[in-house]
Design a protein that fits this description.
The chain contains 20 helices and two strands. The chain is mainly alpha-helical and about 475 residues long. It folds into two domains: about 290 residues, no CATH class; about 60 residues, no CATH class. It has a two-stranded antiparallel sheet with strand order 1-2. Helix 4 packs across helix 17, helix 5 runs parallel beside helix 18 and helix 15 crosses helix 17. The N and C termini lie far apart (about 50 Å).
Amino acid sequence: MSPTQSRVALTALLALVAAQGIWNAAAQRAFWGYDEGGHAGYALAIREQGLPHPLSGWSTFHPPAAHLVGAAAWSLAEPFGPRASLVALRLPSLLGLLAAVVAVFGISRRLGASDALALCAAAMCAELPVAQLAGSMIGNEGFCAGASALALWALVRLEKDPRRLRLAVAAGAFAGLAAASKYTGLWSVAACAVPFARRGLDRRGLRAAAACAACAVAVAGPAYLRNLAATGSLLPMTREREPMRSSEERLSAGARRVSDYLAIPWDCGRYPYVAVVADGGIWAGLNPAMRSVPCLAYAGLWFDPFGLRANRTGPRDGVGWGVALLYSGLVPTLVAVFGLGHMVLRCARSRGRALEAPLVAQCALGLTSFVAFTALAPSLAAAKSSYLLPLLAPGGAAFARGCALLPRPARRAAVALSLVAAALGGFVFTTGTVFAPARTDLSLAYWTHAGDALPGSWISEAARRLLSP
């Protein structure tokens, strides 16, 4: 594939992802994303009164960068009506996903993958259900993933030559932006140390390291210093307050056990939802298989186990599509795990000097944090795969590496099956193909009630402005 052909193919992929994301942002009318009402209230509070107290609302504990962008977009779109405002609020997430797709292509090529494999990895990341959902929600997860991916793209190039000042500034700025959007962005800030953690770093390398650190602190530092001044904690959270605590407890399956991390029940591949429902969408309990953290995390990568977009009114609605996605995702997941294992081995043999070292470091930090958080928070909501979105770029690069290591016949089969999985994910999670838009009246009632329980959070007002007929 020539450079021109690869650019045309990447542009076509980005256009497809953008078109699908805009369609989903416009067609999915109601607040049926992760905490969308809380995020919308946060953006409205910024517009109306400036930055709110970190513990004053549902989602206000998050660093504000993504919400500042969302608030500005809402102001520009508001004259065109509620639907345009909803799309504008979701655009920062889509822009983050598009940035991550470009970064996955660039990182994969930098690590030696062919243009074709790099494009395949980028397509896999773009159509991975968890990325699609985050890319069309009001929130900060897609935005954080994009900033993190761009930081890693710069860090991989810095790993070869840590004296490049412009790359150091870019890495620090994007890592700081990720951390200024969501706490998981701190993984990228920590990964910034990897290219500079070597013996014999000369004066230019030390200057680049200082510039990288200064940019990260300058971008992310104010949010965390504000947290400390306002709450006494660098990482405050609202999950122990009402009504957030009751919402999480509804999904609690009891204290975590060691077996929840080591066992994958056979039923994991038979029923892809967290909640068991009866006819009419009535809550009938929790799916015991989803106690398994690997099971729930995998289901979250390849489906929508919390039923945010895969909404249903009957007990079997969408189960067949979910099961198909879970099984179709096995090949690309195993290929990515194989590629990641090879990257870890290269880092070990090179004593941390392989180009992929920043990716491996971020994966280690992310997976360790995920395990620790799920252990501390027994609610199934704590095991949402969207928390792992800053690992989208390492995962895509690992997939490209895994494919490259396979013998040619196996590689062709793996690529073909993986593209089928990506196409299936794209079809299922294009709103209206399988799942219709969720009901606006339900989300309006839920978020208005939640906002009334949090006076001054602006959630009720955001719900009325965006969801009222």
